[in-house]
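Assemble and predict.
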Amino acid sequence: MAAVSQDLMDILRCPVAVHYTDKGDDPGKLRLVKDSWLVCDDSGYKYPIRDGIPVMLVDEGEKWQDTPDANLPVPPPD
Amino acid sequence: MTRDSKSLSRARYSQFAEGYVTSETHAHGSDLDRLLAIAQPQKHWRALDIATGGGHTALKFAPHVGQVVASDLTPRMLESARQFITGRGVDNVSFRQADAEDLPFDREQFDLVCCRIAPHHFPDVQRFLLECARVLKPGGLLMLQDHLLPFDDQAARYVDAFERLRDPSHNRAFNQAEWTQICARAGLMVEYSEPYRKAHELDPWVRRQGHGDAMIAQLTALMIAAPPIARDWMNPQRWGSPQATFENRHTLIRARVR
């Protein structure tokens, strides 16, 4: 089973970038990386999925901002 | 204050997560039935339960809507809620760790947002309400339940202080006029509200937050010294005995996005 179902991916957004006004009509979209991370290209924030639960906290997303996708650890550490 | 206050909430509710799942007060309140009756949810609705805690509100609404997203700031609370809900065979609830003041959702996605007995922990309730309004569909409903304070300022401060002594992550509560005002500022029109009295036995209420006899003694003394309006508001019974009880006053609010 996918970590996050498609219909919930459709409504989930980066809590920071969703407020951006200079990133088009639908800012803050997320893409699934390594089936364990939700990455926002608008903000660069990266949100871990721990035990099947996306951790959509701003301070958590910020922590991984400078980590390239390829270096994101799997599974995400606690 | 923001980060500190949220860290405090996270730390405390990580420690006491299981107690909130099994708490009679949180699980079986007739206030949950009232919330459901007032909301009148529809089968096709998508609902968001913010600060789901033990998951009781999400579980209550799940059979009456299409889908529930349950969020909480605290991972251990979410894990307890997930075990509690999925253990009952409910499969239309999903879980997100999220901050009530920074919701990770696109605008206009939910028909219903619920938040039960939690906003008094939030450092910025106005921001939380703005986020609720943002993620609700046009005409969508916000169902709120939280502590209610008396209109008298001194009594209100005293009631808040009583709560905060036992739970330092209790930030502040509001009176009914304040609720209506801050909802309106967020673009949410309060259509209906009703008061609710929630009785607590002092002893388990104190121990659920990890305290012991010393805290019971402090709270007992605080109540005895309370100004009359605050004491009437909390309605202590058998005070000073092991069977001591008091009441939380709550408000149940239905507000609609304008």
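The mean pLDDT of chain A is 93.
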